[in-house]
Amino acid sequence: MPQLAQRVGRAKPSAIMVIAEKAKQLKAAGRDIISFSIGVPNFLPGEHVYAAARESLSRDSGQYGSNRGADALLDAFLKHIEALGFSGYTRMHLSIGIGAKQVLYNLAEALLDEGDEICFAAPYWTTYRDIADIVGAKANVLHCGPEQNYKLTPTQLDAALARKPKVFLFNNPSNPTGMVYTAGEIAALADVLAKHPDTWVITDDIYNSMVFDEVGYHNFVFARPELRDRVIFVDSVSKTYGMPGWRVGLLAGPEVVAKAVTTLNSNHITSLPEVVTAAAVAALSGPQDVPRAKCAEFADRRDTVFAALSAIPGVVCPRPQGAFYAFPDISSAFGKSHGGTKINNDVEFCAALLEAKGVACVPGSAFGEPRAMRISYTCPAAQLQPGLQRIQQFFAELA
Predict the structure, then answer these.
(1) To bridge 67 with a disulfide, which of 144, 163, 259, 265 should be the other Cys (CB 3.0-4.6 Å)?
(2) CATH numeric code, 6-44+290-396
(3) Which residues on adjacent β-strands are paired with residue 219?
(4) How do residues 297-333 score in pLDDT, each as one tens digit?
């Protein structure tokens, strides 16, 4: 029979979704499962978002929309990024996608030829490596362990950019670690970027509104405005507004890049649906009380998670300051056993934890750091403390 394209062989199922599906199956079989696996915010947007969607349906045109995005959505996004600190952008600097993941894939198609190099720090979001593999790019992974708070240093970046990669992909706040770069750290990295003009810079900053401890959100363009010609900022309504299923991603960057992504849209997705566009406009331009309240709630949850993990002997967890993840180093458990089950690595640790205690976490190797595991603390509030207690019990029972 005919063969599939080679790129399909390079595509892998999401490791995060594999764990989430396993937890779902166990729960369906009657097990008491607490899932810290999937990174969904687990709250819904304000009523004004639904009202806008209903109003849109009542006057649906049934027509195709804009490949770049409806003017109302682009204008709402412009106001959103102006509030963050971006200035001087117009509609021609923007484009949309079916979620930030598709925006990132489009950017890979637009910027990377097969064999080109892309560099990014580890721990990384799993999709970064997957997209690089699918488009045939060479990934240069810059390892940033817990001993450096999972953060990229200027020295590491300078060495990586000396190789003249086509793209540098940066994530702040970070999935999976929850780490946030300070203004000073961003400025130091921006100074390095300014020395290397041959590399596109993508900042995947979809958690920019979920920052704790008054650290604030900062971007390379704020520190070095001349980088605007090379920096592409990626955002989404998924995490901030509790709308992951609505699938709205956006970018702001150089006109040539926005045009390229818009052209790709014309060849596959065409446009966002009218009802989805209306909901996204309402989310971006309407009351922000729900996102603000949820940010405060997640900061409180962070405190709970961090305290619980810090109390476990041998576990090291740099303190997250954004998003809704913790990424503890669990390597102290390697070589030990639980109930007769030997644990040699992060995958075996997470499998044993799920089987023994009914707690689902994602192995750190999925994110390029096999010493750790990711905890997404967006579960129902009543499950948070019991889930953390089960993790503590699991460690206490290791022999």
Answers:
(1) 265
(2) 3.90.1150.10
(3) none
(4) 999 999 999 999 999 999 999 999 999 999 999 999 9
